[in-house]
Amino acid sequence: MDSAWIESATAWIAAHPIAAGALIFLIAFCDALVILGIFVPALPLLFAVGALVGLGHINGPYALAAAAAGAFLGDAVSYWVGRVWGPQLRQTWPFSRYPQWLDRGELMFRRRGAMSIVIARFVGAVRPFVPAIAGMLRMPLPRYLVPSLLASIGWAGLFLAPGWILGASYEAVAAVADRLAIVLGTLLAVLALVWAAVLYTWRWFAAHADNLLARGLSWTRKHPRLGRYAAALVDPNRPESPSLVMLAVCLLAISWAWFTLLATLLASGGPLAVDQAIHALMWSLRNPLADRLMAGLASLGDTAVLGTASAVTLVYLLWRRRWMAAAHWIAAIVFGLVLTALLETAIDMPRPPTAPAGFGFPSVAVTMTTVVFGFFAVLIARELPGRKRVWPYLVAGIATALIGFARLYLGAHWLSDLIGGSLFGILWLLALGLAYRSHVARSFWMRPLAWMFYGSFLAAALWHAPRAADGLLAKFEAAAPLRIVAAERWWNDGWGELPGRRDESDARRRWLLDMQVAGPLAPLQAALEAEGWRVQPQADWTATIGLLDDDIPAIRQPVLPATLDARAETLLMLHDAPPGADDGERLYALRLWPAPVALDDGSPLWLGSTQRLHLARPLDAAALWRPEPDDGEAFDQVRDALSDFAPIEQPHPDTGQPVLRLRTRSTTR
Q: Residues in domain Phosphatidic acid phosphatase type 2/haloperoxidase (predicted)?
């Protein structure tokens, strides 16, 4: 929300509010036009507009009216075009090349009548066409206008609402859970991208299977020597031929992509620039709530989970005497592991600085997830009817994306490790899938096998992930500081070399680091508890979900954790504060993190931040403790409570704000 283009856009909107409405109108209008609407990305544009509404930069009713008016008039123009030039539309590009676009809209219109005007407005695939079809079929104008107007208003509200809600809650959420929101949003975007890639690739092949089959058959006739080996793939007498052709074409494409990536990595001699950039980005997004979630997801690629599902599947295939399927299943897993291990040994790719031994190129977990889920999809997909055959491949893509993203977040692999692993896994399962489909024509009842495979995977995941998360996180925790500072030097002037603020891109999250403590925290904690302060354990997901419960008193609502250099606070202490002018609940908070340097006498060093928090309820949906300016009020409370430690207060050379410096009682000079 703080990128340069957002700042320039909000500045422009503030200076030109009427023109902003015209821009919103234009977006909705163009999206509704019969041909132009195909190319207008209305959803992301109106999402951004809604976010600006929520942030207060655009008047909400004004934006809603502009979007609804644009959609209504755009539909009206499409209706008029269909009424005047209806018969000629079918001979006009792109409808001459893709007649199914108009056919789908016409089918909907004939089935639903006037209701199709409302339904089509919310279905992107037919939205620009149904008004034109209504005109082509001479629907009376009065009968058309009312549903079109209602649909336009509802569409504008629905498309603006997600961004509006996000913008309205962003200020509160960003102050305490911005990294978590970014991680979850990025994960959802990755899953949506993978879902779309698998789905539309499948649909493209399904639509072009006959053409590919005909071309392949023609090629085998022109090249009899080589063609006899490929003839089985394109034999029109075999119902499996379209699927085999699809697998073969995918095999060639994935082979080219994988060898291109491998050649690029070998030529560079190390990770690519994009690998390092994404690794740094993911490291900057580390936060305690996302850490445990991602560790659990990453553990789904462990042997305890994949091995359980694989073993259950193998036992079932053997029990049902599916010898060929069982042999291919064993080959998929065993040779997948062997080939991946050989590649990892042969390609000496430097690991990320956060990755321990055992993590390299390609990613074993991602490769085997791709192989296990992918080859299982090959086993059962042909037993499913029609369009349902894509579902096992969608599940395979989502499972691989979840595990790959989690490992990328934790710093276990470079991005190229994950892409290389998934491409290699696809390459191997396609080759094996071609062999299996070419030799096995006998079908079998796949429903029990599907329930057993997916059920055993979920059961193993639910058992293994909570137990493995902590150990996996320990492997990827922030490295201990390498810089050693003399204890006396720190006490005298070295403290000023430590950061005075959190290193954050958003100014609202660059909290002052106004406290430095040398020594164990137990004496400090005891002194604060004697003054009425209390320790809050680090909030977990159960506590975070409890933020949505209005029945929980404010005093029991948890303060969400924050990070410094990818580490959560070691100690979080709270104290009740007097209510503000709005009579809202307030708290004083002290957060302490490990410092990025170590003292030569072995004493631990801590950086702290004092804050006053107020309870915000964005959209009345959740309770969030949010920092607010307090003119040093929380700082004074902490300083007074720790007066027995003889703290020293001096302004930080970078921020000019006072920093409290002290040694705990167990540390003597």
A: 358-432
Tokens 């096995």 found at: 440
How do the residues of the chain divide into helix, strand and coil, expressed in percent and rounded to 5? 65, 10, 25
Say which DSSP state 559 is in: P
Peptide bond into 61 cis (omega under 30): no
| DSSP codes, 129-144 | THHHHHHHTT--HHHH
d(CA 571, CA 593) in angstroms, rounded, equals 7
Residue-wise pLDDT tens digits, 537-558: 887 766 666 666 666 666 777 8
Gap between the Cα atoms of 564 and 569, Å rounded: 7
Calpha distance 567→282 (Å, rounded): 13
Cβ contacts of residue 281 below 8 Å, gap of 6+?
A: none
Pair 282, 190: CB distance under 8 Å: no
Whether the CB-CB separation of 494 and 347 falls below 8 Å is answered with: no
Q: Residue range 494-503: average pLDDT? A: 87
Measured between its terminal Cα atoms, the distance across the chain in Å is 48
Bridge-based pairing of strands 648-651 and 563-564 is unpaired
- Closest to 406 in 3D by CA, of 358, 469, 493, 348: 469
- CA-to-CA dists, residue 46 to 127, 193, 302, angstroms: 16, 20, 41
Distance between CA 290 and CA 409 in Å, rounded? 9
How far apart CA 616 and CA 627 sit, in angstroms, is 10
* Integer Cα distance of 486 and 258 in angstroms: 51
Rounded Cα distance between 19 and 2, Å, is: 22
Token pair recorded at residue 311: 């073993």
d(CA 272, CA 278): 10
CA distance 350 to 336: 22
Q: Is the entire prediction scored with pTM above 0.85? A: no
- The model's pLDDT over 371-404, given as tens digits with 9 standing for 90+, comes to 899 889 888 887 777 678 888 999 999 999 999 9
- Residue 575: phi, psi to the nearest 5? -145, 140
34, 131 in Cβ contact below 8 A? Answer: yes
